[in-house]
């Protein structure tokens, strides 16, 4: 369709406009989770292409998948926002994710289909929601592990260096 590339471009750019409001500390804290979920969405798209779960009709560039704008836009930035608002409160995190994922599934997918960007092929909308639930759970687990193991270890190393400087 006539506006499909514009829709894809806006899908990728608009979330980054809001990212300016996140704050540097928040962005740095949740950046690994954003990268992780973007990679998981890319992996899900590879599986989906092989199994013909959905199909992208439009791309921004012939060598790039149509999922790239969604991966780098709403999934990356949106996940950081959702983690900022809800991390540490799992039930709230889960509900907010389901609301956004439900909006994408039941409102966004029909719009993408209407504009000739993408459509579900061998997957029903409820099955897409199951994919999103899985991604939601692994994103939270990733952030939990990142904060409780990697960041804690890094802080302990940093404190040890300060302690050694005070001793010496």
Keywords:
two-stranded antiparallel ribbon; 168 residues; 78% helix; mainly alpha; single chain; 5 helices
Low-confidence stretches: none
Q: Helix count?
A: 5
Could you tell me how far the N terminus lies from the C terminus, measured between alpha carbons in angstroms?
A: 69 Å
Main structural class: mainly alpha
Mean pLDDT, rounded to whole units?
90
Question: How big is the Rg?
Answer: 19 Å
**Quaternary form:** single chain
Percent range of helical residues: over 70%
Order of helices and strands: HHEHHEH
Number of strands: 2
User: In which order are the strands of the major sheet placed?
Assistant: 1-2
How much of the sequence lies in strands comes to under 5%
Q: Largest beta sheet, briefly? A: 2 strands, antiparallel
Tertiary shape: globular
Describe, in plain words, how this protein is organized in 3D.
With 168 residues, the chain is mainly alpha-helical. It contains five helices and two strands. It has helices spanning 4-19, 24-51, 68-86, 90-114, 125-167, and strands spanning 54-56, 118-120. It has a two-stranded antiparallel sheet. The chain is globular and about 60 Å long.
Show the helix and strand layout.
Blueprint: H1 4-19, H2 24-51, E1 54-56, H3 68-86, H4 90-114, E2 118-120, H5 125-167
Antiparallel strand pairs: 1-2
Helix pairs in contact: 1-3, 2-3, 2-5, 3-4, 4-5
Q: Brief overview, please?
A:
Helix content is 78%, strand content 4%.
